[in-house]
Amino acid sequence: xxxxxxxxxxxxxxxxxxxxxxxxxxxxxxxxxxxxxxxxxxxxxxxxxxxxxxxxxxxxxxxxxxxxxxxxxxxxxxxxxxxxxxxxxxxxxxxxxxxxxxxxxxxxxxxxxxxxxxxxxxxxxxxxxxxxxxxxxxxxxxxxxxxxxxxxxxxxxxxxxxxxxxxxxxxxxxxxxxxxxxxxxxxxxxxxxxxxxxxxxxxxxxxxxxxxxxxxxxxxxxxxxxxxxxxxxxxxxxxxxxxxxxxxxxxxxxxxxxxxxxxxxxxxxxxxxxxxxxxxxxxxxxxxxxxxxxxxxxxxxxxxxx
Amino acid sequence: xxxxxxxxxxxxxxxxxxxxxxxxxxxxxxxxxxxxxxxxxxxxxxxxxxxxxxxxxxxxxxxxxxxxxxxxxxxxxxxxxxxxxxxxxxxxxxxxxxxxxxxxxxxxxxxxxxxxxxxxxxxxxxxxxxxxxxxxxxxxxxxxxxxxxxxxxxxxxxxxxxxxxxxxxxxxxxxxxxxxxxxxxxxxxxxxxxxxxxxxxxxxxxxxxxxxxxxxxxxxxxxxxxxxxxxxxxxxxxxxxxxxxxxxxxxxxxxxxxxxxxxxxxxxxxxxxxxxxxxxxxxxxxxxxxxxxxxxxxxxxxxxxxxxxxxxxxxxxxxxxxxxxxxxxxxxxxxxxxxxxxxxxxxxxxxxxxxxxxxxxxxxxxxxxxxxxxxxxxxxxxxxxxxxxxxxxxxxxxxxxxxxxxxxxxxxxxxxxxxxxxxxxxxxxxxxxxxxxxxxxxxxxxxxxxxxxxxxxxxxxxxxxxxxxxxxxxxxxxxxxxxxxxxxxxxxxxxxxxxxxxxxxxx
Lengths: 306, 507
Description:
The complex is a heterodimer of chains A (306) and B (507).
Chain A: H1 2-29, H2 32-37, H3 43-53, H4 59-71, H5 85-120, H6 125-138, H7 142-156, H8 172-197, H9 201-208, H10 213-241, H11 245-251, H12 256-265, H13 269-297, H14 299-304
Helix pairs in contact in A: 1-4, 1-13, 5-8, 5-10, 5-13, 6-8, 7-8, 7-11, 8-10, 9-10, 10-13, 11-12, 12-13
Chain B: H1 2-20, E1 33-38, H2 57-64, E2 69-71, E3 77-79, E4 82-89, E5 92-97, H3 111-122, H4 130-135, E6 139-146, E7 149-154, H5 161-164, H6 173-184, E8 194-200, E9 203-208, E10 220-225, H7 229-237, E11 243-245, H8 252-257, E12 261-275, H9 286-295, H10 298-305, E13 311-312, H11 335-344, E14 351-357, H12 365-378, E15 381-387, H13 390-399, E16 406-412, H14 420-423, H15 438-449, H16 453-470, E17 473-485, E18 489-490, E19 494-495, E20 498-499, E21 505-506
Parallel strand pairs in B: 1-10, 1-11, 14-15, 14-16
Antiparallel strand pairs in B: 2-3, 4-5, 5-7, 6-7, 8-9, 9-10, 11-17, 12-16, 12-17, 13-17, 18-21, 19-20
């Protein structure tokens, strides 16, 4: 119970710091009333819009109102589409979560076996070739991967759609784009971890005792290598929650990243604040889960809790 | 065997995860569906007053709404929901409305509908919208004369009110009143050829409104925003969309190779680098401004970066705009003359100009600014430009708080197609003026109130001569709008950025 209370306190402090920083940064970024009024609007019109949204009050007053509102989870209405900002953002959350889960899942099933294979015998010639390919792939932006996949599977072969909302198959290319974009990093981490375990005493002892190569790999290398892998997967998951912007951009994907960029472009403060709040909350939850996963996976952490 | 089980379980989870997505995927399977990819949807969704009259809103609103008038691609005002108009007194225009027009919810279109729309626009809430505050601030009200005749009044005599009303879409009055503008935006009702089924930030789906006075030839219309130009073209090449609004000039060859038809429509817009003359500095000297105009090879830019579809700008408006003066030939590329003028102005050793620009608004605009910079460097002028967002640009533009000597500015005549719109920017504005010439200012104001068409046209042509000579901007190119049509798309036409959706169908 004490641990839960501590975590909740952390969450409140985290959201408070993020919200305050965001509040200040947004007020420095520009005046949404000018954008809403349009090119060449009279100062009177701009003032009237400011008054409508409370932007005419002092910064401190605005901040107090802001804190009171977010304490009630009321982010106000979007300045451009007038929908309640939190509800608007939450509409797009399932789509982002779904894509994130899929991307991390496929990323794992591509990258972990590849990384293990690469790390087990890194000096072998064909593995060096894969290592080189991974290095090149790591430097390839997701934007390029996405366009290449569309060109091959949509334009040339005509097998898959590239626009969101056109059926089940529309999930394939965005998922593949994100998976391929994330995989090289994970492959390298897994490979390096596996390679590192092969230099450890316990590995050499098991090898000297005559353990079969597969047993060495699966029983002695992989469990230790997966600790760092889990850490990276958690970070990748959290990263995707904040929106796989490029993917959403080229596939017209209705996700949080796209919403965030559009709201920043329009200085739509309530929507920006609601999006960042939701993402911060989710990242916190992901980190919480990852902590538990680490405890389960690493006996040393479990013991340290005793 | 164990590995097979693991593999099987893995794939099952993956397929299950994929299948969850099915429920979120609305599919338009109507036999005659037009799907169009556009650079963006209107952020305020179906509220036609919160958006400026150009893109991105116009790609959506042209399918849903109608205005009283429209302006064709020669700047001539044509009938839309109004069939005839005349002045009753200097501040009143009388409009005779089209009869037997219905809104897509069954409401009748008549003088009451026009009254309701104008009443909103002149209300406190209406004045806070872009259309109410910047496009039609002079409107004071509307009065019903009979079922199909309405008087629209203005603060001061307005010679081109019928053209300006092309920016005012008429909404279904009862739906607007009962829903309120916020809810109406999710389910907009107009008299146009399509009625909205659903609006999200990534898709608008519409069904043919068969009772529209512009009855459409297709059954469904789907508008999809794809902000990336490469993605838009790929969507067309793969047959996922039938049409694309906004392809880049460097994509024309690829589009044609995939059997698409590329249509270039002259835009009522001139891309320019405006000078902050009021702010002082070197650009205060007209010789410097003229020199900069002579220094840039606009023909080469139009041919090389706009694939020959755009043209070198000779003045602040294009030939499709009312008030264009074909006698004005502008500044032909002449770097020697540019050097000569710079020397005469005291800048023989060159000068440095700072500018703030936005990019991504026009085809190839980023490359065009680079070409301008390169040409200016050849005559000893260093152009240091900073790319900023529109949100950063607008407050500086409104208040003329530019730190540099120049800024990116488009001379936009849409949707009224009249040169008075861009020239009204280059006057002695009480707030935020960046250029002020008393003689030109008087002429622009005279044109605004001159009700005699011939006299007014003469004034506008005189304005073109004088403003071009004064060079308050580096006129660069007449912009273009590029559309690509997939196989079997028939009946496409667009004017003043509005697509005539009613005529389009897929064979």
